[in-house]
Amino acid sequence: MLKTTIEDQILIANLDNGKTNSFTKETLEKLKHALDQVKKNEKIKGLILTGNGRFFSSGFDLYTFMNFKDTDEVKSFLKYADEVLVDFFVCPKPVICAMNGHTVAGGLIFAMAADFRISTDHPKIKIGMSEIKIGVPLSIAQNAIMKFGFDSHKKFRDIMYFGELMNVTKALEKEIIDKSVKAEELINKAKSIISLWVDNPGDSFCWIKKELKQSTSEYIKKRLKNLKDNDYNDVFKCFFDKEVKQTLAFVQSSMEK
After folding, report:
1. How far apart are CA 60 and CA 140, in angstroms?
2. Residues 125, 246: contact at Cβ < 8 Å?
């Protein structure tokens, strides 16, 4: 699900969950554990999240989405997913996503929550948000973090409304990713950037990052605190819509080919 190693005082979390490296509940739990380890261990400089095979990540597990029994299960899963996502977003140490392959939907959400995004330069890699095409909206935390990552409401609109999957070159042009490198250079480049940020006198990176992300994280916490039980009922219903479930099944089978 998620394998972790420590290299050069940097924790590398490798998504290894089938062909698409989707985020299941178990994967989220393991990522939460990895984040706790990074925060508590003073010797660890930061975290690199990467994937295995053709995918960095296809996002949240579609089998989970297709098999929710009721809205309580939906709420429970999405609440925990948001908690882990926000933890990932505000981790006081550097977090870099080393995107080894396709990065779509929830995979891109986690990438945008990172401090830096590096992709391999493979011409077939696809990057983007497909939620509008499958009928699944974003949560409050996901929306806020994507807006922060895109750094533009217009960019957020264009990516989210059109659901386009783009190649690495276009993702660089749109500043969705920060850098592209050869596959064999991916992890070393991520490690070198973390060391560049951390290997300085004092602890300035942590303070700079905290100030940068504070307004967004506080906005999310305030919105979630004031959320009423029935605020998301119409949203939760999408997971029980016949057409949405058929689309999810089609997308899952297409990705596994």
Report:
1. 16
2. no
CA distance 212 to 95: 14
Beta strands in the chain (DSSP E): 2-7, 10-15, 46-51, 55-57, 95-99, 102-104, 116-120, 127-128, 165-166, 179-181
Where exactly are the structural domains of the chain? 2-183
Tens digits of residue pLDDT in 186-226:
999 999 999 999 999 888 999 999 999 999 999 999 988 88
The structure's pTM equals: 0.95
- Other beta carbons within 10 angstroms of residue 203's beta carbon come to 11
Q: Give domain 2-183's CATH superfamily.
A: 2-enoyl-CoA Hydratase; Chain A, domain 1 (3.90.226.10)
Residues 63, 223: Cα–Cα separation, whole Å = 28
DSSP string, 133-150: HHT-PPPHHHHHHHHHHH
CA angle 48, 210, 186 (to 5 degrees): 20
- Residue 185 burial by CB count (10 A; 0-12/13-18/19+): exposed, middle or buried? middle
For residue 43, what is the DSSP state? T
